[in-house]
Amino acid sequence: VTPCRDYDVLLSLRAAGALDGDEAARLDAHLPGCAACRAGLDGYAGALALARLPAVSETERAAASGLAVAVVAESARRVRRRHRLGGLLFTGLSAAAVIAAVVVGPSLLRGPAPPAEDPALLADAGWQEPDLDEIWETTNVIDWGE
Ligand SMILES: [Zn+2]
């Protein structure tokens, strides 16, 4: 049984809650005497109920807002962790500076190391004073532009 063709659109509008005015009155006048249109209205209403998303429950709302809170908390935690790492790095550098001061400081206070007293020792080690000109030429670090 299909609804009357003239009322089909009105039935779908009524099911969607979008029918008012003269057309609503016309449908209201027709429905009591037409089982096909009443069945058609039930059909539209059922289809729309299936298509419509259920209202958001309190549980879902809480879960959704909890999710937002969790996301914010997580990002805040990451920022804090990054800052903490920065702090650790800074602390490490400070410790290194203290260690460097403790280790290097006394030698600086003692002044330059005394020159080696035994030239033979240096010769044995194969050390010779570098020829700066040769180093410049070899490495070609600076282009003199000749
Ligand atoms: Zn009808």
Task: Describe what you observe in this structure.
The protein is mostly helical. Helices cover 72% and strands 0% of the residues. The chain is built from 6 helices and no strands. The protein has helices at 5-15, 21-30, 35-51, 58-110, 119-124, 132-139. Helix 1 (5-15) runs parallel beside helix 3 (35-51). The chain is rod-shaped. The mean pLDDT is 76. The protein binds zinc ion (ZN). Zinc ion binds at residues 3-4, 7, 30, 34, 36-37.
Summarize the structure.
By secondary structure, the protein is mainly alpha-helical.
Keywords:
binds zinc ion; 6 helices; mainly alpha; single chain; 146 residues; rod-shaped
